[in-house]
Fold these 2 entries.
Entry 1:
Amino acid sequence: MLTIDTLLFPRWIVPVEPAGVVLEGHALAIDQGRILDVLPAVDAAARYLGRITLHLPSHGLIPGLVNAHAHAAMSLLRGLADDLPLHEWLTGHIWPTEGRWVSEAFVHDGTQLAMAEMLRGGITCFNDMYFFPDVTARAASAAGMRACVGLVVIDFPSAWASGVDEYLDKGLALHENLRHDPLISTAFAPHAPYTVAPATLERVRTLADELERPIHIHLHETAAEVDEYHARHGRRPLAHLDALGLLSPELLAVHMTQLDDAEIARVAETGVHVLHCPESNLKLASGFCPVARLLAAGVNVALGTDGAASNNDLDMFGEMRSAALLAKAVAGDAAALPAGHALHLATLGGARALGLDADIGSLLPGKWADVTAVDFGALEAQPLYHPLSQLVYASGRHQVTDVWVAGRHLLKNRVLTTLDADAIHQRARAWRDTIANG
Ligand SMILES: CSC[C@H]1O[C@@H](n2cnc3c(O)ncnc32)[C@H](O)[C@@H]1O
Ligand SMILES: [Zn+2]
């Protein structure tokens, strides 16, 4: 009998790899932060003694969800400006508010609020793009959550940096500081082609090549953005990035609602990852990402929430369901993006985009134990024929009971173990009063 850290006995395990598999009556063994074994429960009981053993008789275990595109601190701006198109929303409301209020304290408090929401919704890793990424990284590390923080660049000054040189210098220093953090990675994060000059994008590409880091950028979010860019530069943003040498497996392109056939082929050929944010695209009426066509072309697609100011929640169960339904409507094909594929996008697709698929994204032995437990016991989840169908088409984040990141139990029977929920709640209310009365 081998003594290990944690032994879980759920009703089902959905490992995501191999695709489509649902295991019943199996156990998950965790030791030293990693998945040691996935095996029949009877064998597990004979082979392992868990220092902690948990029986989850009505639950399914899935890989921790990966939120592939977030602006975590924007949770403090949830509901500030609704029912507007992207340009008006950003320039008329969000940027002026950020210009006035974004600070270290804002990013700390907003990121903690976002992480509390994400963990309670089964998200174990988020790919962030926001000012003060050093604060985001510290907050995530302290909470024990996995994150990829964006080394942001944008052609206007902020409280974080006064200009392009300072954005890049601070980003490089932060990358160096975080190099050995087991939970935090970095990506360059130029905001968008319409806010970052081509010369700066070239500098970012050179640095990203040198440091072997991804480039995370908003791209082809709306038709207006693409048309205006074309009028100004004589080509569409994707073509311009191609000419600058940015299209590669290191490019994480967020949104991509405006793509013709040739562009889809080029994205596939160059290995660009698409970070799809269905609910933000719907709410801002930005357009529809052609997910089924991208997948058919062989493109890796991941799922993200975007910020809570354009979504307005950080709920990857919602995104999975919206992505599956939207893909069917856009393709005119009920078979587009079935439940198992939607879960793949929300787990392994995100891990792959972030270059973390050897470590997370599925429940394979050897990977970090980033695990989410979902309770299917309630009346609303009956009857249950297919766990995957139930998970994507009939479940909500309130069914998440437990979450582990690298084997650490961060959500225990719906209680956060590393974040002070009351304090987060209180600070969010205080920010609301400050911003609303400011
Ligand atoms: C440079 S920090 C990130 C920057 O992005 C803004 N933002 C949030 N959501 C979106 C979106 O959907 N498209 C474009 N820009 C977005 C956020 O407010 C920050 O200023
Ligand atoms: Zn965004």
Entry 2:
Amino acid sequence: MNGKILETENVTVSFDGFKALRNLNFNMDAGELRVVIGPNGAGKTTFLDVITGKVQPTEGRVLFKGRNTKRLSEHQIARLGIGRKFQTPRIYLNLTPWENLEITCNRNKNVLATLFGNSPSEERRTVAGLLETIGLSAKADIKAGLLSHGEKQRLEIGMLVAQSPDLLLVDEPVAGLTDEETYNIGELLLALAQSHSILVIEHDMEFVRQIARKVTVLHEGSVLCEGTIEEVQNDPRVIEVYLGSHE
Ligand SMILES: Nc1ncnc2c1ncn2[C@@H]1O[C@H](COP(=O)(O)OP(=O)(O)OP(=O)(O)O)[C@@H](O)[C@H]1O
């Protein structure tokens, strides 16, 4: 591995001739927190789908940790270390946050146990630590269905982290959240970025300003430009295709 956790080389995805991604060249370093923005239909969701193997590139290739993921199933790619957070939380509403996290830790038990010799008390410490990270220690034992939308998002991010992925893909985590909840998610992602590689797709520019170091702008299935949030916001091409219509 050349220090790149993710690379796409000339990736094109055609749906019946329509190119949702066009010769997309993208890469990010291990340990990076990257934000991808772009107007509606730019190809952001397709980009995540092609990384996770849900969609196959029509042309080009995707490398995860230097390995070509072609011919691998979605499940196999997930097991290589890619975790995806969808827009709507996928948590067990009848279970408590504690139980939700415990189940996720258990699912990974074989891997973790081999590595760390996970004992029940260590597992409790892991769950307690995760609850603290996502700011839900005080709500550990109420049904997850009673959590606010923002708290559910945080719980799902915690469940993702419990799977110990090398790369976290996070799709529009603050859609529909209040300003305070949005800020909390931002702080959580910044904290997680200290020990994870994270790729965030986002529309909310206030949120992007809070978390972004390097931003990639997608437009019509290709990278339009990359840079700091200031560079991107001042780029006339970006103003024309994206920011002009949103701010
Ligand atoms: N399965 C499919 N079949 C045909 N066209 C598709 C399919 N999936 C996506 N597209 C088209 O590809 C383009 C890119 O879609 P995509 O969902 O990746 O964009 P996006 O940037 O995520 O948009 P949004 O911000 O609106 O979610 C769109 O024009 C969409 O209609």
